[in-house]
Design a protein that fits this description.
192 residues; 9 helices; mainly alpha
Length: 192
């Protein structure tokens, strides 16, 4: 699969590169249980799909989902659906992102064991959606849920958990700063 990524990248074939990276998410995450490599592949897949842009990215991902489902591979289909959630958020298609996220959640809750670290990606994505919609309190609350799930699954010292601590700290700080600025503006009689 890494060779497919290399050839597709060399040929500037983003659609094939995105599909290859998506396959690597499954290979690294589920077959080899290498979460760090799986997360890297997931980010690369998301980047390739986003670079395709809007409808082309969605079409490529939809084709990939259909192929995985034909093979009976719901977990791989859910991985691509998670990529689509990111694309839909960037494209400001929040309702579509929520619909796809609900589909991923249904698959993962049925197929993954309770406490699996990937289940943390559900509230993590909902946190992104809340933030995009201007719901800072919801964003922080959902980010805390994602962090707690991942921490319970992986332990305090796992690199992903440590990174989540930093991101969560930033989200809390930004939410707090926005709240303080809003209160200060209201105190001065200025609309925020």
């Amino acid at each position: 699969a890494y060779e497919a990524v290399a050839w597709a990248t060399h040929a500037a074939d983003r659609r094939t590169a995105a599909a290859a990276w998506t396959e690597l998410v499954f290979l690294e995450g589920y077959a080899r249980t290498d979460e760090v490599a799986a997360r890297l592949a997931m980010r690369q897949s998301e980047a390739e799909l986003a670079a395709l842009g809007g409808d082309a990215a969605i079409a490529a991902a939809t084709e990939s989902i259909a192929a995985h489902r034909r093979r009976g591979d719901d977990l791989a289909a859910a991985t691509v659906l998670m990529n689509l959630v990111s694309i839909e958020i960037v494209a400001v298609r929040y309702d579509d992102a929520e619909r796809r996220l609900a589909e991923v959640e249904e698959i993962w809750r049925a197929r993954l064991p309770a406490g699996h670290p990937d289940l943390a990606r559900i509230p993590e994505a909902r946190s992104r959606l809340a933030g995009e919609r201007g719901d800072g309190a919801g964003q922080v609350s959902l980010a805390e849920q994602a962090y707690a799930l991942r921490r319970a699954a992986l332990g305090d010292t796992h690199t992903t958990v440590v990174a989540d601590e930093h991101v969560l700290g930033l989200e809390v700080a930004v939410h707090h700063a926005r709240g303080v600025r809003g209160r200060e503006a209201r105190a001065r009689g200025v609309e925020h």
